Amino acid sequence: MRTCLTTAVLMLGLGAASALAQDKPPAVVIYPILVQAPIYGATVDVPSTPGGGGGGGSEGGSATTEWGFNSAYMGGMELHGKGVFGELDVLWTKPSASHDVTPRLDVESDIWLVTLKGGYRVYRGLGITAGARYVSLDLDATMEFPQSGVTLNGSSTRTRWLPFVGADWRGLAAPKWTLALAADVGVNGGNDTSTRLKARADWQALPHLSIRLGYQYLHLALGADATLGGVSRHWSTTQNLHGPEFGIGIVF
How high is the pLDDT of residue 4? Predict the structure, then answer.
């Protein structure tokens, strides 16, 4: 993960250094249509409880699902001024994935994300950013241990704001084509965090119409208290989504 972030930041810096000509961007762009086809995978860590615990309820384990194709629905708005910019975007998806090797794992999630970000252009197209991401995660997980015949079922709902800092680069590649790269990482001191990497190209086909093509990677790490196997435990999960996105923007 650190390698990915380092690479993204270097790409942002190189983009600024090469400095493609930057014309004044549209003041406001609203994206009523924005969809993604993410590949989804999840990891669930369930701690064991020593002694007692109600028979098989003392068992725990860690498992990671296979990658599976899913869909995500998004919307957003961007504001651009002289040297400053801001973004609001919303994502909703209900991904699921499974893992057939012991311990067997099935995960179903319902994820809502609302991201608020602001930034300042420090050198040509390169900007520094800060913001917060609201995360609502409904998670249902089933972990099976065939050798012992134990099945752990758990569900949890987490909602919280996760602050982040990052970098953003934007440059004009052609009269109607704009390229952009962005990366952010959570800065909270707990176990919950979020990280996102984005690359995109925007084609302003008409004066008030923009076509957006991009690719996004999102990593969430959250802990939760839930009852599994009759025992209350603090378990943790990581959710990973990455895939292409397509959007239509209204330019003002």
Answer: 44
Where are the chain's structural domains? 2-251
Which helix or strand (DSSP H or E) is residue 7 part of? Answer: helix 2-18
Specify the residue for token string 């629905």.
73
Identify which of 108, 95, 89 has the alpha carbon closest to the alpha carbon of residue 249.
89
Q: Each residue of 166-215: pLDDT tens digit?
A: 999 999 898 899 999 999 999 776 778 899 999 999 999 999 999 999 99
User: 30 to each of 2, 24, 89, how far by Cα in Å?
Assistant: 32, 17, 10
Please report where in the chains the tokens 């025992």 appear, as a residue. Answer: 231
Helix, strand, coil percent content, the chain, rounded in steps of 5? 10, 70, 20
If pLDDT is split at 50, 70 and 90, which confidence band does 124 have? Answer: confident
Selected residue with higher pLDDT from 220 and 15: 220
What is the C-alpha separation between 213 and 248, in angstroms, rounded?
9
As a whole number of angstroms, the distance between CA 123 and CA 22 comes to 11
Residues 6+ apart with CB under 8 A from 51: 58
Residues in contact with 228: Cβ distance below 8 Å, sequence separation at least 6, in sequence order? 46, 57, 143, 152, 153, 154, 235
**How far, in Å, CA of 12 to CA of 80, rounded?**
19
Q: Which fold has domain 2-251?
A: Lipocalin (2.40.128)
Over 80: is that where the pLDDT of 246 sits? yes
CA distance 47 to 57: 10
Say whether pLDDT at 112 is over 70.
Answer: yes
